[in-house]
Design a protein that fits this description.
Oligomer: single chain
Helix content: 10-25%
Number of domains: 2
Protein name: Bacterial type II/III secretion system short domain protein
Number of helices: 4
Order of helices and strands: HHEHEEHEEEEEEEEEEEE
Largest sheet: 6 strands, antiparallel
Structural class: alpha+beta
Strand content: over 45%
Length: about 280
């Protein structure tokens, strides 16, 4: 009789364990538990977070959270949402395409030395410096010159990453100074002007989108003026894409002890880009 009671208790305990296990399984499989969001860290293999975050955020609902740290995505998502993100990253987190960007800048240049003047005095048919008996001025004028040139340069770039292209150049400016003894001294200075831009190429099939941020430094009377302009243009791979034009004018005035040298120049032309796969 005692053995029957012990056996009955064992069966009753086993039934309770099975019932608890079945209940736990139903809880784990219930939609409310499966839809709970958990913190997930997904490392990126080839891309930086800024490149993939817009696509990931567009894929997930608003109540999911997406952020990044170093080269990792920090997500608070459900298991289903995590699987969707992983499938998306298999498509976009790939080895970036290497590109060759060629810049063509056909330019028209115009240089004009306007005037070289020396201030002094005339006495007995000679030019003297430092004597104020009869002040006068000697002016020498020169002609202007124009020319056209085509310049190209190439730079390797990675799709989705910025590349800098400089189209400015240093220009020599020569002045003449005459000291109190009448000795001439020629001084040449190179005045740089940084006219360049950053370009971010993005591939969409056989089309390329170019995000452009331009930096334009121009010489003012006492300082360099800087302008920045951003824009986006598009075109076909391997085709020349006009992105804008360059135009600069420089007017330089130098004064020495007795000499003033004025020089002016201008430069203009289109800027075209061609993007090719490597």
């Amino acid at each position: 009789m005692g053995k029957r009671r012990i056996f009955s208790k064992q069966i009753h305990s086993a039934v309770k364990v099975i019932a608890v296990g079945v209940s736990l399984s139903f809880v784990l499989m219930s939609p409310s538990f499966a839809n709970e969001r958990e913190l997930v860290v997904i490392p990126l293999s080839y891309s930086v977070p800024d490149q993939v975050l817009p696509a990931v955020k567009a894929l997930l609902p608003e109540d999911a959270t997406v952020s990044s740290y170093n080269n990792q995505l920090i997500l608070k998502v459900t298991d289903k949402e995590k699987a969707l993100v992983e499938d998306l990253l298999k498509q976009i987190d790939t080895v970036p395409q290497q590109l060759l960007i060629t810049v063509r800048t056909p330019k028209t240049r115009s240089y004009n030395e306007q005037k070289l003047s020396a201030e002094g005095t005339f006495a007995n048919g000679r030019v003297q410096v430092g004597n104020s008996d009869q002040p006068g001025t000697i002016t020498i004028r020169s002609d202007s010159a124009k020319g056209k040139s085509n310049g190209t340069q190439s730079v390797r770039a990675t799709a989705g990453m910025p590349a800098y292209i400089a189209v400015g150049q240093s220009r020599p400016v020569t002045t003449v100074q005459i000291d109190g003894l009448g000795n001439r001294q020629y001084v040449t200075e190179y005045l740089p002007a940084d006219q360049g831009f950053y370009v971010i190429p993005r591939l969409v099939g056989e089309q390329v989108l170019l995000d452009i941020l331009q930096t334009d430094d121009k010489h003012g009377s006492q300082a360099i003026d800087t302008r920045r302009v951003s824009t986006t243009v598009s075109g076909g791979l391997g085709q020349w894409i006009e992105i804008g034009s360059t135009g600069s004018a420089t007017d330089t005035s130098k004064r020495g002890l007795t000499v003033r040298s004025d020089d002016a120049s201008s430069e203009s032309g289109l800027i075209e880009l061609r993007v090719e796969k490597l």
